[in-house]
Design a protein that fits this description.
The protein is α+β, with helices and mostly antiparallel strands. The chain is built from six helices and 18 strands. The strands form four sheets. Strands 2-5-6-18-17-11-12 form a seven-stranded antiparallel β-sheet. Strands 4, 7, 8, 9, 10, 15 and 16 form a seven-stranded antiparallel β-sheet that branches. A two-stranded antiparallel sheet has the order 1-3. Helix 5 packs across helix 6. It comes from Urochloa decumbens. This is protein-serine/threonine phosphatase.
Length: 327
Amino acid sequence: MLHAVRFLCSVSGSDVEQQPESSKKKTTASSARRRPSRLVIPVADDAGEVAAGWGAAAAAVKEVDVVVEGEGFCVASRAGPRHEMEDAYAVVTHKIDGDSQLACYGVFDGHGGRAAVDFVSQRLGQNVVSAVLAAAEEHDAVSEAIRAAYLATDDELLSQPQGLSGGACATTALVKGGDLYTAHVGDCRAVLSRDGGTATALTADHTCAAEGERERIERGGGYVSRSGSGVWRVQGSLAVSRSFGDAGLKRWVVAEPVVSRVPLTAGCEFVVIASDGLWDKVGNQEAVDAVSRNRATACRELVELARRRGSRDDVTLMVVDLERFLR
């Protein structure tokens, strides 16, 4: 059975409203003054369990911290000072007799406005779960289903009649049976902790600085140039080489994900998924060490660490407990 819960932040009102929900989730802010002006959690329906949200509202509440705790995961997020919040997260679970048999966790980083990231964070996880449920049990079939779901989500975004602008990066981690499938486009990153806190990157950032990505773009007739700040960009414009949306660059900036599988065995502890606002300032092992020390506070501490080190980007971080899936 699929069951849905959804988080939204807006700037209207000055209170926090919460409607009944089936799983325990907690949202906190660093102070009453910094609390998001309105948080609405609609009543769940029977279509699917989806927890999706944005770390903070725009404009007057940019400095708000939001922490969400769910079943086996936690999220912390803070908007950067430069523009409206363009990060998002989502969780989709499929349950049989109340037991989570399949779960998809995602972190998303938009650019060029919120339209694309809003759309992708609502659709991608559901598309991935639906495709995987319809696929054969073989590992290759599951990986191909995830790939197809990414491409289908991009097609849906590009075909929107209102012509949604901008684009979005995404990293998802799907737990199915005894395996963890990681997929991504762009520079959101997933890092696995195993065997007592050893960090292993599960994704490699899709940026124009990567030689393979530059060669792919150039083979397609595009070019990559280095800006005055030292950042490599597609057609002199976009720093990531793969994303959802970005219609004007679609010939080169593809939504083809890289999908990998890791068997969940004894020693797999948790996975950290975060936007580049974290990874630009915090190393993979450093993030794993912080979570290993104290899972209850690590999400907020890592967001604060990135900001203290000078991050001016949105920062969104999700930690997923993998030990609960071990059999």
